């Protein structure tokens, strides 16, 4: 009899095309004891899920190419026991209903941190919300703002005028914010 490899850390597949956001969330989940695999697209996520089906998945709704709803459908087809949260900055009631209909446990709007996701996961499973650790540092408001600006700028393919319009800022104000270094946590 060959001893099996036993891991008590829950496996998590984190799928988001925003590298900064994905890395920050991945680090936060690892700090809480999760075994994290990250992917930047639907195709990367499916390759990872086929190699080792995750217990949990956090899936961004809007990504280049195939979207998060399609990934929810395919993850459920691979392993119906995978618990899936859909995460997006472009939410609507229609997409929330569709995500849940396809098998997602819950739907979380961006910006969200790991604690928001854990609460949504517990709520989707009908469990009491987990206690938030006191030693965990939430990102500063300046850091959250900087990450949001970077996400919108990426969505606008680097077009500062369009990003400023979407953010409700004057173009020069956005340029000044972009000249500063990213704030620390």
TrEMBL record:
Any one GO molecular-function label of the UniProt entry: transcription cis-regulatory region binding
Recorded superkingdom: Bacteria
Keywords from the UniProt entry: DNA-binding, Phosphoprotein, Transcription, Transcription regulation, Two-component regulatory system
Alphabetical list of Pfam families matching this protein: HTH_8, Response_reg
GO BP terms: regulation of DNA-templated transcription
Domain Response regulatory: 11-125
Keyword Signal: no
InterPro entries in the cross-refs: CheY-like_superfamily (IPR011006), Homeodomain-like_sf (IPR009057), HTH_Fis (IPR002197), Sig_transdc_resp-reg_receiver (IPR001789), WalR-like (IPR039420)
GO CC, alphabetical: cytosol; protein-DNA complex
Residues with the 4-aspartylphosphate modification: 60
PANTHER family linked: REGULATOR OF RPOS, TWO-COMPONENT RESPONSE REGULATOR ORR33
Protein name: Dna binding response regulator PrrA (RegA)
Species: Hyalangium minutum
